[in-house]
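Input for the complex:
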Amino acid sequence: MRTIGYIIQKEFIQIFRDRFMPKIIFLVPLLQLLILSYTATFEIKQTRIVILDNDHSVESRKLISLFQGSRFFSCSLDVEGMEVAERLINTRKVHQVLVIPHGFERTMINREPVTIQLITDAVDGSAGALRSAYAQSIVQRYSLDINTRVTGLDIKPPLVATWSFWYNPELHYTTFMVPGILVLLVTIIGLFLTGINLVREKEMGTIEQINVTPIRKIQFIAGKLIPFWIIGLIELTFGLILAHFFFDVPILGNPAIIYLVAAIYLVLIMGIGLIISTVSDTQQQSMFISWFFLVLFILMSGLFTPAESMPAWAQIFNRINPIAYFIQVIRLVMLKGSGLADVSHQVISLSIYAVASIVIAVRRYRKTS
Amino acid sequence: MECRVRSDYNIRLMIRISDVEKHFGDVTALDKVTLSVQRGELFGLIGPDGAGKTTLLRIIASLMIPDAGSTLVAGHDVVKDFAKIRQMVGYMPGRFSLYQDLSVLENITFFASIFKTTLEENYDLIRDIYVQIEPFKHRQAGKLSGGMKQKLALCCALVHRPELLILDEPTTGVDAVSRIEFWDILNRLKAMGITIIVSTPYMDEASLCERIALIQGGHLLSIDTPAAVAASFPHSLFSVKTDNFFLLLTHLREWSATFSAYSFGEYVHFTPTSETITERDIMSFLVEKGHSETHVTKTQPTIEDSFMYLMMKKQNQYAG
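Predicted:
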């Protein structure tokens, strides 16, 4: 036990003496949290739309004025012809083109259905879908309105859904993203720093001197991992404080649950970092392997895109994706106020996983060659 | 009875290596190496780079598992009883392996504490070395000069009062003055009863050891005292010098009467195939070849000459 203490002491001296380590540990996460949570957004602020009015009637102008009145759209009406409009969309100068056909007003007054064309640039799939939905909702509103005016009857649609968004009523993206980014921070500490730290002993040759001492490998590994486990939890605290007081992200559940899960999760991810360090000889190698897994885990985790919409194989993969579990838990606890019982599945899975990863890591680690 | 035999080893032998082999893929690093080191001995492992010195020392330090053969350190098997060996061995690798970002004192304290001891407790052992680096005790190890690093590494290897000190090329890359100092230190440590096994590529350091083993290509060529190794040279040896050193070497190597000819400082060391060849024969051969200012003298073989001879004999054995 004393031996582990000496190793931990040595690690902390080295971490804080390093020129980069303290910055990597405290500055980089802060910047990441600030930048990512402000920029990783699904909200569409401005849609540039070209409206080709081939009718020039009172009704077509009414429809146009609805678009002009919306804060989501900025309209260009002076574009000459479809070819120009197409070029604008190809050069990404505008996002959408709405074509109102000739005879739009006359056909509607005759109570015949009219088709208008809406073209959306969908290079960025999710943004395209959102823009299309915004435009359609305006067309819908207009369509109800004209129905009333033409028939003279105040026809109410037979079915109206009223909606409200629970747990994140205003669909704030920061509320959604920040908990996920906290997970990212903890992961970077656990996975990268542990891996690099262990490989550095190999690269610098210091492991030779350690190996010839009576330090048992379990003591050495514990002494190496505990400092980063502590730093990971401090970092989480730091992140939670920022999230709550700076981004107004609610913490409805018990923070103790977040810490419990983070503590287990860190053991798991450090185990993976340790396994990576046993297969790599240099810090670069360890970095590359860590990146590979990090990117894979993050993209599939549901941090940026909902995991529920991924194909079945990806959802099966997510059962072994530790980041996915932690993101679920942290979002549930922070935004929904879930208790330990609600996240017991994730906690148990992570615990089993943590034990497995640390056992494999310790077994793989060798003092002799 | 069994017990008696083991304790006998304990008393007399610090290291007992029998038929040890180690392969790295197709390369044979050690081939059936057998070697014993007495307690309290200063033993040298002499050989060129890549001879297998580091591999052998790492096996003794329990850092590497041999493919075959047995290695006992103070009667403990290096594979099975590695935990016991690590308590009693101090190892200084060829490459500086302490924490460069920790200070001199932090390094010593760290290694002392993981051996559950302190600098003060074993101060008598390392005092002579420590006082030299003490002025820099708060400097980071990475910022020390080569000689200082060497001394720090030795301090760390000694801080737990090991019975056996394993030094892998401690003087490689160290200036001449520091090298002499370093050997002085080793002799003082030996006087305090510590067994030392040291490897070096420098033949001149071999004579500073009590016994040496010459190693080449994973084979031990000879194990004896430095004087005996030098005296084992079986032929007459001539020291030759002329006005044209390069042609001298070429001509001697073409001569049918030559067993070996190699440069030795500003001279060529020449061994004839037959003992009947004299200074006069060599002289007349060289004059015939157009050399002038020719000096030929019979000379005493050194360890290096024995090493060259044994190496060639081994090569010829394989060639034949």
